[in-house]
Amino acid sequence: MTPAAKREAVAHAQSAFGLSERRACGIIGVSRRVNSYASQRPDDGALRVRLRDLASERRRFGYRRLGYLLAREGITPNHKKLLRIYREEGLMVRRRSGRKRALGTRAPMTVPLRPNQRWSLDFVSDAFVCGRRFRAQCSPCSQHCCALRCA
Questions:
Q1: What residues pair up with 123 in beta bridges, in sequence order?
Q2: Out of 46, 75, 89, 138, which residue is the most buried by the measure of CB atoms under 10 Å away?
Q3: Residue 134 lies in a domain
């Protein structure tokens, strides 16, 4: 539970049941100091706007590269603060999806029971001494083959 949620729970216990702050904090299990804490963090509105603009211009840049662009403009936030704001704004770079694979289970190849039940072709490629490439088609199931016999 976050400290903010604990503060809300203490406030609810105080208003709903008429408890004192000390008693409500004891029941919820939070320190009175945590309950009375007020953040003094400065406003990062301008940094957020500029970071969002840069991220929309350059979608493939992460927070580090955007930080370098901000530094060129004279805005030098701490890298931890920059990462926090980057995450809060939901500016994560999309991950590339992986290779698409065949769905389901594949059936094993059946063994041919008689001749001419399965046909297949094979290609052999090589290069001449001059560098020109050539390709020959072989049919391994026949008795005669092209000049390059398939092994």
A1: 137
A2: 138
A3: no
- Using one digit for the tens of pLDDT, what is the confidence trace for 86-100? 999 999 887 778 888
pTM of the model: 0.49
Residues 22 and 57 in one domain: no
Over residues 29-88, the pLDDT tens digits come to 999 999 999 889 888 999 999 999 999 999 889 999 999 999 999 999 999 999 999 999
SS3 14: helix
Q: Are 29 and 49 in the same domain?
A: no
The residues, any chain, with a CB within 8 Å of residue 92's CB and separated by 6 or more, are 86
The C-alpha R_g of the chain, in whole angstroms, comes to 35
Range of the domain at 15: 3-35
**Two tokens at 20?**
């004192």
